[in-house]
Hints:
globular; Rossmann fold
Amino acid sequence: MCGIAGYFGPGKADEHGLLASLRHRGPDAHGTWATTLPGATKLQLVHTRLKIIDLSEASAQPMHLPIREVGEGAGDGLVLVFNGEIYNFQALRAELVAGGHRFRSAGDTEVLLRGYAEWGVEVFARLDGMFAMAVYDGPQRRLVLARDHAGIKPLYFARTQDGGLLFASEVRAIIGSGLIGNRVDRVALADYLRFGSCQEPRTLIEGVRAFPPGHFGVIRLDEGAPAALVTRPFWLPELLPRGPIVNEQAWLDEHQACLAATVREQMVSDVPLGVFLSGGIDSTLLMELAAAAGKEKIVAFTLGGGLTEHNEGAIAMESARRAGVHHLLVQLNQEEVGSWVRDGLGAMDLPSSDGMNTYLVSRAARKEGLVAVLAGTGADELHGAYGHARSLGRLIAAVKAAGPLSRPLSRLAVAGLRLGAGTVPGDRLEGLLAAVPSAWQVDLEKRRFFTAAQIAALWPGGNGVGPSWSPPYVDRAAFKQQGVREQIRLTELRGYLLNTLLRDCDWATMANQQELRVPFLGRRYMECVLRAPERMTAANGNPKPRLAALLSPEARRLAALPKRGFTMDYVGWLTGPLEAGFIRAGEVLREAAGFDFDPKARLAALRVSRSQKEARRLWALLALGRYIGANRLISSSNER
């Protein structure tokens, strides 16, 4: 796992500054490469390395394949910087060896580079892994960027003030380069308030964009700067072949074999490997599958104590004992939690209302020596476990069935809810009903954080800034051909999973120099699950029946237990050790972004109400204000 960055343009990027900003992602080694191109332009590539597979210098980056080994053309050959892991690299390596390639290293980086030399941009569709990469293609005089199918690994880019292009694994590296402005993207800010996270492709910084998942992009280096970045998809979930499952048992067998193979591939590591074990279905199944593939290779890790519910540590310990897997149960004291939470806020690459639980688990596991870990991230979204596809599908069907009466009935329902439950629940229902008949917009509204009225009261300076409504698809026609439930499932994958969970997983683990692997988001496994109708992956009363069925008989009772999770004491933190920080964050939001609220009054009200929902909203404001202040961002309306 690593950090990458690069610059193409008429000027020059500060390589030392980029390396410093990405060192936490790759503390074990670093490297740079540069070349001068026609038209007095320059290409620079930067890499920081966290050693996971093949710890030798043979897998160091930037990795160069000289022109004599590329096979044709002229120039300086190929150069690669790469962040991630290619889990099917051994099969690809065997294919390349059969084709005449000779390897100097034992890792996946050289397989990726030689795979590009052999297949060009078609290599990306062959990969099963998580990655963000850049390839300098000397013979073709082009720079190629690519990001994995699900967006597990981040990649950001921006046009620089001198007309060049800058890209990096983190937004903060781009901000700190000094090559772009520091204005807040007001639409992205509105989206943050709506969802508790920025929505791709926008980031909180104007002009900085996320590279789309499942795409590669080409920059013609012989065009000079500014050269166009032309992107093309190599994997789109809405275009995956779907159809009736004729033989359900055959699919069930395929599903089991595919998940087992995915876990087995993702256990390849030359450093200590663990699995985050919560005691729930997803992590318990990962542990059991990993144990079957080689229990001596893994350690099960659980963060217990006051941060968890339902005696999670005891259940996890029992599961690990039955599987014969070494188990570590760690409990943090109050001082550690307070200190680590502050550090976690400072580690955010983009502000987030969530992710602190992952940061705490990751830091505790890394302290115990676990450099790479497996986690159950993505299983809920892929398998429709939240139930959104069913409940929201029924809502859409009911509104459609009402026909001309839908509007008056909607107004009546909203008014009744406001009267009985309060303004905020009524506003949320109003937003849901207004989004009908769009399945994906309804699903996004379900994930809403602040209501429109709450945003207007908080941020009068944002008056007139509308939502961006970034669609969760590239091919609209193919997406619309799916049923409502399937559209909602795809929206969860390209919405909440991409914009909140995966982004939080990246910054929270990389801040601790740890690689997080997510087997449920393996490309081949996702394709297997998405081929099946939603009824086969989610069911009433059992949110993940296909996964629960794969548990051992002794562990299957876990499927009936309440969903477990962290008890994050937002109320205690905000009214205690982080009180001063919240007040400062509120001042930053007023001065730099045009917010209008009294942080002291909000905290006083929180002390009385002890509302966890209100605390989560205030936590989102703390993260936002702290990030804007730490990175010295200004609102475009405040620019001097």
